[in-house]
Amino acid sequence: MQLPETPPPPRRGLFASLRSNFLTGLIVIAPIGITIWLIWSLFGWIDSWVLPFIPTAYNPALLIQRYTGFEVDIRGIGVVTFLIFTFLVGWVAKGLIGRSLIRWAESLVLSIPLIRTLYSGLKQIVETVLQQGQQNFEKACLVEYPRKGVWAIAFISTKAKGEIARRHGPEEMISVFLPTTPNPTSGFLLFLPRKDVMMLDMTVEDAAKLIISAGLVYPNAEDPTKAPDEDKPQVPDAAE
Known about the structure:
alpha+beta
């Protein structure tokens, strides 16, 4: 008995093909365009703060305008100036004279009541932010929050120490940072018994992507320890 031939799949129409090509191009262009726009905007913001402190005789944009008559927006001059100035300050601060000047300036600032509080708070914030580049989260995990039966992704910071570990008793406690979605820079610091924390195989970077994307970007399902294959964008079928 001869089976009936399977009819060929229907050919895509012109509109469906154009739609598929457009979505593929959008997936490729959008991240690049947004990244360039953010960098461009950041450079402009830094320039707006730094350029007013550069003398007119040394501002390349003003020199070009003076001699050619054309107004040119050269982005990045303020950024380069800021980097060079910060490098020089750091180089001077490492020397004996620089350390002495810094200690003298800090003692002068700390002697002013209102300025002392503001300076101490800002210094602590800056030191905390810069230290985050050296102290990373250990692993990603799941914790039951905000109630039993509901699980949320969190990051393990370190073991509980000092008074917190001592007052809880012999059971081991760990500190966990529970970020919010889609802004993972804010969240909650929780201290939990280790037995109440479910460790995950996915990396911290993949867990962060999962949080930022509100659950849309999942890590590699076959091997959770590897990053997802981002080289192949998933384009929705035009026929759907």
